[in-house]
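Hello forum,

I keep getting stuck at the same step: I have a sequence, I want structure tokens, and every attempt I make locally crashes halfway through. Rather than fight my setup again tonight, could one of you with a working pipeline run this one for me? It's a single chain of 348 residues.
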Amino acid sequence: MIRTLEPLLIPVAALAFSLLLFAVFVAAAGADAIGVFESMYRGAFGTWFSWQNTLGGAAPLMLTALCTALPARIGLIVIGAEGAVVVGGVSAALTGLALQGASPSLAIPAMALAAMTAGGVWIGLAGALRHYRGVNETISSLLLNYIAIAVMSFLVFGMLRDPATLNKPSTYPIGEAFMLSPLGDTSIHGGFMLGIGACILLWLLMRHTPFGFAVDIAGGNMRAARLVGLPVGRLVVITCLLAGAAAGLAGMVEVAAVHGRANTSLNAGYGYQGILVAFLARHNPLAIIPVAILFGGISASNGLLQRDHELPDATGLVLQGIIFIVILVSEAWYGRLNELLGTKRPTA
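Reply #2:
Ran it on my machine without issues. Output:
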């Protein structure tokens, strides 16, 4: 029974222990830990306004978490979502600018397709290098982040720069017509529904199709997968393409729902936060949804912590860092929970 509940019990215990460590950190900084947690709850979930900020911040986290979660199912550790977000956002902006005057019903899907294609190719390159050339995908995807940021800076500060953007160089705006509409009377943009839809579709793909079954087999033992005739190389590349497409879509959401243009705000750290979300969700696309909402709430509450408790604006990042370290340590608990709890079944 405990073994069955491990995927739930261990992340919850790790999260609770992380909050305890964070309370010690806050107390050492001279703040009231209980008051800090109350402010975090109020800033994240206490009011409808807080909920709107939280859900809006969760949208890109869902998509970037998929960029880590999908390759992990085939045994790859990809941390290149930040680069895929950047190239996806720039591609979406370029497409929107190229289609000025076109119908929004044509331009918005085209922007999404361009962003997904760019992100997919970016992460697919890391997967192809891993399989065909033996290049470590963690290192290559990390280095690709810096290349993507450099390319974006070259374009945004150079040939694509809008002269009217003095303090923060940006591309020309895509226009109100190409922006994603908010949901009803809220400030929650359409990217939230795109994130949920992507998580559900990819969960169905990975859990209820032959492709997903083959990916899990290859992730468990690539050598055995080759022996039974599975096309491991193709599975690796396709999985990375899908992962990159999700992160690229996050870049499109940032352009078409938040900024209205491409600029350095695309490099906001969503890709790195997505790694934490993916690990806490145990690389389960459905579990990514509530975990992303939780971390969207942590980010939304940063302002209250700074204003009400005089804590640094990066306090939320400290909590995320603590959670990440504890989650990594907790990996050693899987398969040993019965022993740790003293409930190991006696042998005859």
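The chain has a mean pLDDT of 90. If your local run keeps crashing, start a new thread with the error log.
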